[in-house]
């Protein structure tokens, strides 16, 4: 029985996927030659390609920059109070709304900067917040 289980596991996890994996590896190496990525540990390469998935949300607040706002303005304080009360899933949804992705590039939150700006509209109560994902600007009406 042990030999059968060993052979079955070997087939399932190795032999059955050998050809598709070789094809994938050949294409991957064509686009990203081994000399460019062999210096990374697997975990580092994963973060580099996929980005970070866990965050220090207070660091996000610390790195925020402001246009037409000051850090101590009531709208900004209210925004961060509400933000920090959100569950983790909603915070990641906000990140996707702001940047187009639930993940941060390989540099991490230490270097992630975004702006919170006042869109300076005539009737701010009639406007919702919106984002410019290319420039990482969150437009927050007063």
TrEMBL record:
Keyword annotations from UniProtKB, A to Z: Ligase, Transferase, Ubl conjugation pathway
List of catalytic residues: 134 (glycyl thioester intermediate)
InterPro entries per the UniProt record, alphabetical: E3A/B/C-like (IPR044611), HECT_dom (IPR000569), Hect_E3_ubiquitin_ligase (IPR035983)
GO biological process, one term: protein polyubiquitination
EC code: 2.3.2.26
Domain HECT residue range list: 1-142
Pfam families (UniProt xref): HECT (PF00632)
SUPFAM superfamilies xrefs: Hect, E3 ligase catalytic domain
Record PROSITE patterns: HECT
Enzyme class: transferase
UniProt cross-references to Gene3D superfamilies, sorted A to Z: Hect, E3 ligase catalytic domain, Hect, E3 ligase catalytic domains
Catalytic reaction equation(s): S-ubiquitinyl-[E2 ubiquitin-conjugating enzyme]-L-cysteine + [acceptor protein]-L-lysine = [E2 ubiquitin-conjugating enzyme]-L-cysteine + N(6)-ubiquitinyl-[acceptor protein]-L-lysine
Highest taxon above the source species: Eukaryota
MF (Gene Ontology): ligase activity; ubiquitin protein ligase activity
The name this protein goes by in its record: HECT-type E3 ubiquitin transferase
Organism, as annotated: Chloropsis cyanopogon
Upper lineage: Eukaryota, Metazoa, Chordata, Craniata, Vertebrata
């Amino acid at each position: 029985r042990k030999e059968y289980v060993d052979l079955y596991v070997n087939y399932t996890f190795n032999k059955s996927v050998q050809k598709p994996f070789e094809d994938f590896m050949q294409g991957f190496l064509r686009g990203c030659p081994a000399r460019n990525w062999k210096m990374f540990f697997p975990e580092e390469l994963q973060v580099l390609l996929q980005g970070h998935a866990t965050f220090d949300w207070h660091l996000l607040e610390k790195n925020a920059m402001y246009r037409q706002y000051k850090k101590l303005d009531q709208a900004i304080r209210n925004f961060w109070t509400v933000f920090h009360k959100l569950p983790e899933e909603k915070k990641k949804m906000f990140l996707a709304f702001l940047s187009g992705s639930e993940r941060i590039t390989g540099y991490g939150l230490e270097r992630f900067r975004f702006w919170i700006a006042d869109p300076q509209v005539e009737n701010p109560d009639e406007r919702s917040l919106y984002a410019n994902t290319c420039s990482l600007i969150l437009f927050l009406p007063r």
